[in-house]
Design a protein that fits this description.
Blueprint (H helix, E strand, L loop, with lengths): L10 H20 L6 H8 L3 H4 L6 H25 L4 H18 L1 H14 L7 H22 L9 H13 L13 H16 L4
Length: 203
């Protein structure tokens, strides 16, 4: 009597990742509130009921999308901060890491930009506020070190500079497309050449 083949369970994690990529694109394009499980399923080419095999709600999908993005972002940021380089080098590395994350998680960044202010009111998304506090501390402390070390201008408003750098880096998610003409590192280099000429000490 022939032995029955065991079901393929190894494909499930990969399929799950594919569905999260699809969901992220739909959330980014249509907005969280306007997106339904049915819309995600339609874009994934499956029935809405089949999507519940992998996820119990659109909230759980969004949470996993954002947590994955932020976990990777902080792995990169923590490595930069732990290197304890000079303030200019740290700023350059943070900007470069940010563009790499946009390359890896463009849709998640777009969702974070558009939806985080509304989402933090929900308990399951409270981690967004904590990440924002860590983010602000990392950037402000780097700028403050640069001013103290006379690497950046003494008259620099570090909070205003932080907001400028933050917004101009992350808005790239609205136009950046992976596989384009410029790599994340090249975009970061061009960006830094414009920003640092404005805040570096004039010699």
């Amino acid at each position: 009597m022939p032995t029955k083949k065991k079901p393929q369970v190894t494909a499930a994690p990969e399929r799950r990742r594919e569905l999260l990529v699809t969901a992220a694109e739909v959330f980014a394009e249509q907005g969280y509130n306007a997106t339904t499980v049915r819309k995600i399923a339609d874009h994934a080419g499956m029935l809405a009921g089949s999507l519940y095999y992998h996820f119990d709600s659109k909230e759980s999908m969004l949470e996993e999308i954002l947590r994955t993005f932020l976990d990777e972002l902080w792995a990169g940021y923590d490595a930069v901060l732990e290197a304890e380089s000079g303030p200019r080098e740290t700023l350059e590395a943070l900007v470069t890491e940010s563009f790499r994350e946009i390359d890896r998680h463009r849709a998640a960044v777009a969702i974070y930009q558009k939806e985080s202010r509304q989402l933090v009111a929900q308990e399951r998304f409270a981690f967004l506020a904590e990440s924002q506090r860590r983010f602000e501390k990392a950037w402000l402390s780097t700028l403050e070190r640069g001013v103290a070390a006379r690497v950046f201008r003494a008259d620099l408003d570090v909070r205003l500079t932080y907001r400028f750098v933050r917004d101009t880096v992350w808005v790239a998610a609205s136009w950046y497309r992976p596989g384009g003409q410029h790599s994340p590192e090249e975009i970061a280099r061009q960006y830094l050449s414009m920003v640092l000429d404005g805040i570096a000490v004039r010699t």
